[in-house]
Design brief:
Layout: E1 5-8, H1 12-21, E2 26-29, E3 43-46, E4 68-71, E5 89-90, H2 97-112, E6 137-141, H3 145-156, E7 160-164, E8 177-179, H4 183-189, E9 192-195, H5 209-212, E10 219-223, H6 232-241, E11 244-249, H7 262-265, E12 269-271, H8 282-298
Helix pairs in contact: 1-8, 2-3
């Protein structure tokens, strides 16, 4: 194919790595909020943090000379709708599955082993009976790359795993994983339950007061997906009632939560700043995924991880 011009919002180190891998093509650095309106680029790599405002107006002349858009994230909810339509758009889906599943597993260990409150800083030692991991029941809502990676790890630890996919999606067959028929069944059986589904029109607010009321008493609820899946007021009510025993949240709605929000203050809420997917090897995994797809693009072959804007992922 002819020489491509790749306009990238990635950082300088990532763009330098692209130049080293694609010496016959041109890689242009974009500012985090810049789009290539006056650049004859045919490929755009765009980050979500600076286009998270889905109401951002469509710029005049879009999509200019572009022929393909690569998202630097797995989810598509951080981009305006016009950016996701009219061109082939691919996501980073699957790049962070191992990291996020490890984080979810760490949250399960923290709950079962009473960390960090177990650590002592004085001589008044009090012994605590700690919960096992083996034999505990893990529910997974959303059985894509992250859900399946988590299931593999949990099964290796002797956990009982049950999964349910998002509405309209069949669940992948994985030996040792049982299938839940409903959210009520999934919540009613689990000791730990991980939300790993994408945020779509069908899943927004799906985990509401009615679903939480079906939870096994004392359930540990983990959200490493999107804050919009969960009715946060309903969660606070379920925590106060004891229906939910602990909530470990790596995401919220909005992000960040405003100062003074009740989720910051609740003693059974453990909130982290949407960091589960951030890792030392994350940028390299994304670049490799892009390079694999760029080879297909050069050969005019079908791209992997194509986004369906109407579907929501």
């Amino acid at each position: 194919m002819s020489r491509s011009i790749i306009a990238s919002q990635l950082d300088a180190a990532a763009n330098a790595a692209l130049r080293a891998q694609l010496p016959e093509h041109q890689v242009l650095d974009l500012a985090p909020d810049q789009l290539p309106s006056d650049i004859p680029a045919d490929v755009l790599i765009v980050r979500p943090l600076h286009l998270r405002n889905r109401a951002l107006p469509r710029p005049e002349g879009w999509p200019w000379s572009l022929r393909w858009v690569q998202l630097a994230s797995a989810g598509i909810d951080g981009y305006p709708q016009w950016l996701l339509e009219g061109l082939p758009v691919t996501s980073g889906k699957g790049c962070n599955a191992q990291q996020v599943s490890e984080f979810a597993l760490a949250l399960i260990f923290a709950a079962a082993k009473q960390l960090p409150q177990l650590w002592v800083k004085h001589s008044d030692w009090r012994l605590s009976a700690l919960a096992p991991i083996a034999g505990q029941r893990l529910g997974i809502f959303g059985f894509g790359h992250i859900g399946q990676a988590l299931a593999h790890k949990a099964l290796a630890l002797g956990m009982q795993v049950q999964a349910l996919n998002r509405p309209g999606q069949a669940i992948a067959e994985l030996p040792g994983v049982s299938r839940a028929e409903t959210l009520a069944e999934l919540f009613g059986n689990a000791d730990h339950l991980v939300l790993a589904a994408p945020l779509t029109a069908a899943t927004r607010g799906l985990i509401d007061a009615g679903v939480l009321a079906q939870a096994k008493p004392g359930l540990h609820l983990i959200n490493i997906a999107r804050g919009g899946l969960l009715d946060q007021q309903a969660l606070l009510g379920a925590l106060d009632e004891g229906r939910i025993g602990r909530a470990s949240l790596d995401v919220s709605d909005p992000e960040p939560l405003p100062d003074g929000h009740p989720l910051y203050r609740h003693p059974q809420v453990y909130l982290s700043p949407h960091t589960a997917a951030i890792s030392a090897d994350g940028p390299q995994l994304l670049l490799q995924r892009f390079l694999d797809n760029f080879a297909r693009y050069a050969q005019q072959a079908p791209l992997h991880n194509l986004v369906d804007a109407q579907r929501g992922y």
